[in-house]
């Protein structure tokens, strides 16, 4: 605990000049020390677990832990079971890399899907967003990341080799690249396009432009530029 | 799921005038429907559990669930065990109402504590804050709430009867009331003071004033008023 904590050591000058005190942050004070009574062990452990989640610090962890104690017993049991089950029963599809219970995943198994189009995304959550659209009936390929020279992520570190193998073995006519509109996402799209196009496969990229329902006034200049560049004739 | 969700029903006019669509929010779209593939069941269940926690909505629940899948197996197992243990092994102390593994709690059992002072707080988390101060060596009493006519919380609904029984049976000289400085906290302090003082027990309230290290410029006028009222002679 002491080693892992990124606490700031504060030196306080307390009570006249009686003594110096070193005040550690909340992290160190979870445990019972020097006759000071703090959280009982089960709650400390639960707080430690909550703090491992992203965006949850010591204060929120304490709030969630106390909330948990007051939850219905069945809800807590279900929560514990769901945690174990999510870790144990879920895996990545060996074909597309989507999160799934069965391998291959239900999308890859679906015979009614158009097997000539593959849509490439960064993250399994993107698949869910695209599925909600209800208009795309091709297959997916999930990269689980983007190329990033700064973070040292190369083509071998994300799901690109399996995409290439897929394109070699399956009859694919079009690859739609739907990486995010960030610098890394754009670079990944460029890289994939240069890799795939020579094989005679059509490579497309999702359109950039104004969000539906948005105000031109509030759009940033790059989005506006993309919207002007990608303008379409009114039929 | 459909019944419990507090979703906003949006009516969209899609694709020319081909059809009206009812777009429910993320809640309804967790499940697999009409050949659209969404989250696998283990992740749906985990998201449902995360969403029962305070301040966690559908988007955060999805993020936490995906994070959980990528966590180390041991960490997930520990998390599940911590949940069960916190619910099963923790209870409220039968004397003071503090959260504890053993009954009575370690503070009530500690013979070195000054048994003539009881500090009354709203919440077990307040005990932890006060213990960190390292200067208070009396006992505690946790109300688990405040009097609130609006929410229908009367003296019987919070831990007041057990406090009165304690004062009758133990030799207490002073009760320090440390409810929060809110309208309900102040009202509860007033109520307790009128109830306890006739028994010849000294009733005190924590001082209100400026926080240490704060700027007078940014202090609100009620805090300033309390600070002036509670001024002390410099020795």
Features:
Helicase, Ruva Protein, domain 3, alpha/beta, DNA recombination (chains A, B), zinc ion binding (chains A, B), 37% helix, 2 domains, 235 residues, Recombination protein RecR (chains A, B), zinc (chains A, B), two-stranded antiparallel sheet, Dna Topoisomerase Vi A Subunit, Chain: A, domain 2, homodimer
Oligomer: homodimer
How confident overall, as mean pLDDT of chain A?
81
What is the helix tally of chain A?
8
Which CATH C-level class of the largest domain in chain A is it? Alpha Beta
Q: What's the shape of chain A?
A: globular
Structural class computed from helices and strand pairing of chain A: alpha/beta
Main sheet record of chain A? 4 strands, parallel
**Percent helix range of chain A:** 25-40%
Order of helices and strands of chain A: EEHHHEEHEHEHEHEH
Terminus-to-terminus distance of chain A: 65 Å
Unreliable residue stretches of chain A: 1-33
**Residues in β-strands, percent of chain A:** 5-15%
CATH architectural arrangement of the largest domain in chain A = 3-Layer(aba) Sandwich
Zinc finger (C4-type) (chains A, B): 93-108
InterPro entries (chains A, B): DNA_Rcmb_RecR, Rcmb_RecR, Rcmb_RecR_Znf, TOPRIM_dom, TOPRIM_RecR
Function (chains A, B): May play a role in DNA repair. It seems to be involved in an RecBC-independent recombinational process of DNA repair. It may act with RecF and RecO.
Keywords (chains A, B): DNA damage, DNA recombination, DNA repair, Metal-binding, Zinc, Zinc-finger
């Amino acid at each position: 605990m002491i080693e892992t904590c990124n606490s700031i050591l504060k030196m306080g000058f307390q009570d006249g000049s009686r003594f110096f005190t070193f005040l550690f942050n909340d992290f160190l004070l979870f445990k019972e020390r020097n006759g000071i009574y703090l959280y009982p062990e089960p709650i400390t452990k639960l707080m430690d677990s909550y703090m491992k989640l992203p965006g949850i610090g010591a204060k929120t962890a304490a709030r969630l832990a106390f909330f948990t104690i007051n939850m219905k017993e069945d809800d807590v049991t279900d929560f514990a079971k769901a945690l174990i089950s999510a870790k144990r029963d879920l895996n990545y599809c060996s074909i597309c890399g989507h999160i799934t219970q069965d391998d291959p995943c239900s999308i890859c198994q679906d015979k009614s899907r158009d097997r000539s189009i593959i849509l490439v995304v960064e993250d399994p959550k993107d698949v869910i967003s695209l599925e909600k659209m209800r208009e795309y009936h091709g297959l997916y390929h999930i990269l689980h990341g983007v190329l990033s020279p700064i973070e040292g992520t190369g083509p071998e570190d994300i799901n690109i080799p399996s995409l290439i193998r897929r394109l070699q073995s399956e009859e694919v006519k079009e690859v739609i690249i739907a990486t995010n509109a960030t610098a890394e996402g754009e670079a990944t799209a460029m890289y994939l396009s240069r890799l795939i196009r020579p094989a005679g496969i059509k490579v497309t990229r999702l359109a950039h432009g104004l969000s539906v329902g948005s105000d031109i006034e509030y759009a940033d200049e790059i989005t506006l530029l993309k919207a002007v560049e990608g303008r379409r004739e009114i039929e």
